Amino acid sequence: MSFIPYGRQFIDGADVQAVVDVLKGDWLTQGPAVEAFEKAFAAKVGVKHAVAFCNGTAALHGAYYAAGVGPGDRVVTSPLTFAATANAARYLGADVRFVDVDPTTLCLDPSKLDPLASEGLKVIAPVSYGGYPAPLDQIIPFARSLNAVVVEDACHALGAGRNGRMVGAEADMTVFSFHPVKHITTAEGGMVTTDDDEFARRLRLFRSHGIERDPSRMSRCDGPWYYEMVDLGYNYRLSDIHSALGLSQLSKLDGFVEARRRIAERYDRLLSGIHLVELPPSHSGHSYHLYPIQVPEELRFSLFNLLRDSGVGVQVHYLPVHMHPYYRNLYGFDPEDFPNALDFYRRAISLPMFPSLEEEQQERVVKVIREFMTRRA
């Protein structure tokens, strides 16, 4: 019986050839393939700038830096995310606060933002969880009223749509990840999209040691070789090898998202009516990085283990960030502080979701769930 992972990459001959072509060329690190990938990505999303990073966490770090986040500032995000969304703010010395999720979307609940309004609020970082587009039409006006920057964590949501535009085109900055289980992969990589020229300039500065080469922005210029480090940046650059793979993968994005939506629709049909199984929220623009079902808390452990024992690589996404020991110890959070995120965590199981998932594999996954739940009806 073959193992079915919860997610995996899809690599074809064109992807392999794109990487081989770079390996045979003159550039391996940051060269023309990076620029080509950035330009194609920006055009796909519909923005002026796309700035590539070595991974999604680095991209988040860069976006917060570009927004001016520093010690004493406050970054607000969802507890239902991977820890990196909060960690990247802590790297810059900011305080992190969480807003509970709306159980109908699993995204940050805009109606709960008001208590966090303050002069210290620098960034609101909504997470488009699982590929469901976060409700920016309610978040952006709130941020504008406080002169805060909106950095959408769309690491789950490449190819998703909202308000007639692709996710990545509405927030001040939007962050994507190219980990192998995401919609496209560069093996490891990330991207920040923005229409703001200054944000783009700061992103590029930050990803390359804080080095400036524009003579108009340097204290002096001794010649064409000259550069200055004007701020403390990092080596967060993406290579030409990774970018070549990303550019090839980007050409397949629409097909990947279409396949994920077909798989989600099939799960919806197969799981509909099964006793005690709650389906994930739907949205016309959903891009389905994840397909998390919810079951009663007292059954989750047994069903999870049964699926794993049956060769199904289910997962749980995620332990809410406020429950990690680092954040509990730092801020004194209690698990019950964000009850919707906690309730989801206690009942969630992410089922396999990737473009090459076969119908027979889906049926095998659902058969285990149906038989388990039937015995408990």
From TrEMBL:
GO biological process, one term: polysaccharide biosynthetic process
InterPro entries, per the entry: DegT/StrS_aminotransferase, PseC, PyrdxlP-dep_Trfase, PyrdxlP-dep_Trfase_major, PyrdxlP-dep_Trfase_small
Modified residues (N6-(pyridoxal phosphate)lysine): K182
Keywords: Aminotransferase, Pyridoxal phosphate, Transferase
An example Gene Ontology molecular-function term: transaminase activity
Pfam family, any one: DegT_DnrJ_EryC1
Recorded superkingdom: Bacteria
PANTHER family: DTDP-4-AMINO-4,6-DIDEOXYGALACTOSE TRANSAMINASE, TRANSAMINASE
Entry's family note: Belongs to the DegT/DnrJ/EryC1 family.
Protein name: UDP-4-keto-6-deoxy-N-acetylglucosamine 4-aminotransferase
Source organism of the structure: Thermanaerovibrio velox DSM 12556
